[in-house]
Design brief:
alpha+beta, 6-stranded mixed β-sheet
Amino acid sequence: MSLSASIEVRLDGLHLDVRLGVSTGETLVVLGPNGAGKTTLLRSLAGLLPLRGRVVLDGETLEDSAAGVRVPTERRPIGFVFQDYLLFPRMSVEDNVAFGLRARGAGRETSRREARAWLERVGLGDKAAARPSALSGGQAQRVALARALAISPRLLLLDEPLAALDAGARGEVRRELRRHLSSFPGTRLLVTHDPVEAVALGDRLVVIEHGRVVQEGAPEELGRRPRSPYVATLVGLNLARGRADGDVVELASGAVLTAAARAKGDVLVALPPRAIALYRSRPEGSPRNVWRARVEALDVGRESVRVHLGDPLPVVAEVTAAALADLEVRAGDELWASVKASEVELYPA
């Protein structure tokens, strides 16, 4: 691992306790809800917050609280793209990009030459003399990225790099950002709360909640086997805990499901919303998982509707708008629900 970090920080009620590693050339995305500790993690790596633990980058110890080692922020080979970009409003775009080089001792002409070269790379060579106020959100993001990369960092940190953009610009800037990240030879660590952004930009994901890592792995792995309700919601699955005995699982809610697979002991149960069928009357035949539930709420989308069901098995079913119209269902109605045993995914808790 080119980056190895063990970080513990207590700040404003948050207790962050995270261990992570990132390989050279890998983009690691840290995903989590607001307040999970994502920005605190980045600021700790950059040396902007005191921490307990150890940070090692390419074999160089940047921080080791036990040994009393702490490399100052300005001497760390780290580029940081802040959430709101933090461009200096009274400086030109060129001077903004040159700022980090000047701060590290480069001469004025050298700094400006490098800044102009980076602006050309990000497609903003014609904006060198402009002030940040004249830039669009996407352009400001590229200037902030150029400023971070101009100092030739070995670690690039990006804090919610697309959060300040409107929805219309986000897709195009995301594609541009992915291209720039893929050409960066060092280590890349990005934080976000947006699952689309995480999957589009990340080679590997780490999910943190309440300052702790709850799951990590490739995007497809998290999508197949979420380990917390937050992750399940992100990937669009229902998740429940239960205890399995063969192909029968008793859930914490008291509901019982039959699965195609067999297991023993504590398990997590994932159910795709589209696999849950809804009926006005009990379905005919012999489906193995059938129950009656009250409709708690409806989320109507353009092409589908998410139907929130209450006890005994609180789940979300996803149906087409046409199917919902046929059911003539409203919040408060009672329906029959079923799911095939083959759609009940079991894995160790």
